[in-house]
Amino acid sequence: MKLFIKNGTFITMNGNETIKDGYMVVENEFIQYIGKEKPVENDYDQIIDGSNRIYMPGLVNTHNHAAMSLLRGYADDLALQIWLEDYMWPMEAKFTSEEVRWGTFLSILEMIKGGTTCFVDMYDHMDVVAQAVETSGMRACLTRGMIGFGGKEVQDAKLNEAKTFAKNWHGKANGRITTMMSPHAPYTCPPEFIDKIVQAASELQLPIHTHMSETRHEVLENEKQYGFRPVAHLQKLGVFDQSCLVAHAVHLTDEEIGILKEHSVHISHNPGSNLKLASGIARLPELMKEGILVSLGTDSAASNNNLDMFEEVRLAALIHKGNTFDPTAIPAVDALRLGTIDGARSIWLNDVGMLKEGMKADFISVNSNQAHLLPKSDVISHIVYSASASDVVDVWVDGKQLVKNKELLTLDEERIKYEFNACFERLTT
Amino acid sequence: MKLFIKNGTFITMNGNETIKDGYMVVENEFIQYIGKEKPVENDYDQIIDGSNRIYMPGLVNTHNHAAMSLLRGYADDLALQIWLEDYMWPMEAKFTSEEVRWGTFLSILEMIKGGTTCFVDMYDHMDVVAQAVETSGMRACLTRGMIGFGGKEVQDAKLNEAKTFAKNWHGKANGRITTMMSPHAPYTCPPEFIDKIVQAASELQLPIHTHMSETRHEVLENEKQYGFRPVAHLQKLGVFDQSCLVAHAVHLTDEEIGILKEHSVHISHNPGSNLKLASGIARLPELMKEGILVSLGTDSAASNNNLDMFEEVRLAALIHKGNTFDPTAIPAVDALRLGTIDGARSIWLNDVGMLKEGMKADFISVNSNQAHLLPKSDVISHIVYSASASDVVDVWVDGKQLVKNKELLTLDEERIKYEFNACFERLTT
């Protein structure tokens, strides 16, 4: 299969490069050519006129709990601990694999159509999640989130489940699925359980993904319970000796930033969720200045409440300017990097996130002939400051087209909505 | 003309009322009935099945400079004074009435299709702006913004132009257009010029609209130049003795909040623009606690960079939570009120902004059968935390349908884009 796109505008994320009236050739799953010069070959299976389209790498969402779309709008405007313990957990306790299946499918539907080509998911019933990803054609890094309440036997069962899942699915779906090991958070996992998970991750040679330092409350409680703030606590438990992606990291001291840098810990910044749950505003400018690898996540639809990665990119570009009185904090192209190439690198993928020869063809097109994306001035600015998920027209992952003219090709959208609504009815009656 | 909508979900903005499977009757420009009970009459000119639609009041954008859409993406990530003086003003100096016409039309196109039914515009060549509003069918409160540089003669000419415009257009287009008088800002208008504008507003019995206390720099310079911060300065000049809408009001002391309250000054909060220009985060929770009438504005597309009022509503709901660590700050329904009914009240319109019998029929429909707006739980939450301009399907203003199934009925979209792009080419070559 050989695809030729002509006359397109390409945001490559190779530095701040933008190619206007350019050309791209995709052969099977790889980008074979991209550039300003028209390639000489003309033996293509498909030719697309890319006029009025901006092509860019698919967005990478590095923190989500996809099934929780079932709880979108169920409880808002509450503090994280109350929201989690009094609202989310009791409802989630009712989730069977059916709820996880259709909740995840609905999120996948929203994400793909909105230009997200790859996501991180931490949840349970992960076989169902992996099957949904496989069917959809998306790319994902999946992990069974382990909450350590309920004693040693429950913990052991969860750990075995997490290990089995991680082994079974790592590298599957033509390499589109990778896996991680996940203690849910220092406040939900006793140290000895985290210790075991770290050992398992080391044996399996898999990265660790966890929540960390999301709220002030969490940091204070950690100090009270264990004598250390979360960063030092996890460091002592060897979490950072593994490859590690932490979500949130809102409340960090300079010293903690130093520790995270030293251990090459990756951070998934979740600005929308952090604002909505009033967790605070992460120190993104400082983290980036230190060269820490930061990416963006929506968190679940229960705390965001959409899965629009354009919005997370925009929030990352906007809130740190307003919060620091520095209009040069997080320039547009840097924010877009967090949502694309740095998202891919955050989950140790080196062959997606950029439009470049030899990279896998995970990319999207945006309709640029709309009022809010005119005039044809700075397209990176338009994507960051003005575009949204609904501007996405076409989506390819691994060289395969998943969305064509806003229609999802791999899944039955009406069936997903029907089953999802039925799950919600069951949960709430 | 009598329109009947059945089986719709209605967010009325009458308190936090939501009517599911409800009915609305619109006769000419007025809402004749809205409720849960099916009305007995059945002699309608048009019947719409509102299943899978959320109906709500059109959004009211209380601060904009519509023609500046021509400068979208022209200069980003710069401080307000540099952005304004080195980039915006030199480009705006090239604007003729043609640039104002097509820049304004493009903004109107974006706003109407995105569910904004009424906007405030402060600019020049205002006859052209008013004509565009009249043709489009939108509602607007328009004002010739006066920058006082250039000496007394220039000031007098501007003031005369502003007065003539305000008199000619106030109440026109079936009452859809109202007018105000606008000194641009305390930092661009000498006190004696502001004084004259206040006198004119008093004579014409029109409100005053101005920028105020947008940046720390502005506040400090005002103190240095005039011995007072902007609030006291404008108070002394009698600005607050008129009905008054100030844009921004980011940097306020408790005492200043007291002065604004005492004078019933209305505030247009512009969260997106304030973040992007790094002006800071306004004290919205305190302003609302004091009962000051606050509404929302996008500011121009040069500093936002879109005119999506759903995004301003969402930012108002989100950033103050994150900034104050209080998840109950600005609940969803309060944020939506700022963007609808309080927007209308902010510009002294008492017959729009709410779906209620006797109110004018300025309303929109949103397609609720989309992944990011499911499940059918809390629709106000979905509108505030998940919806965007692109979810709008139909728009009515004054009982007249302006957008039908995402197509604008009153203007030629392709012609507008063509002329707009031509203006941009002329400006930049």
From TrEMBL, chains A, B:
HAMAP family: MTA_SAH_deamin (MF_01281). This is 5-methylthioadenosine/S-adenosylhomocysteine deaminase. Gene3D superfamilies: Metal-dependent hydrolases, Urease, subunit C, domain 1. It comes from the Bacteria. The keyword Zinc applies. Belongs to the metallo-dependent hydrolases superfamily. MTA/SAH deaminase family. InterPro entries: Amidohydro-rel (IPR006680), Deaminase_MtaD/DadD (IPR023512), Metal-dep_hydrolase_composite (IPR011059), Metal_Hydrolase (IPR032466), MTA/SAH_deaminase (IPR050287). Binds 1 zinc ion per subunit. The keyword Acetylation does not apply.
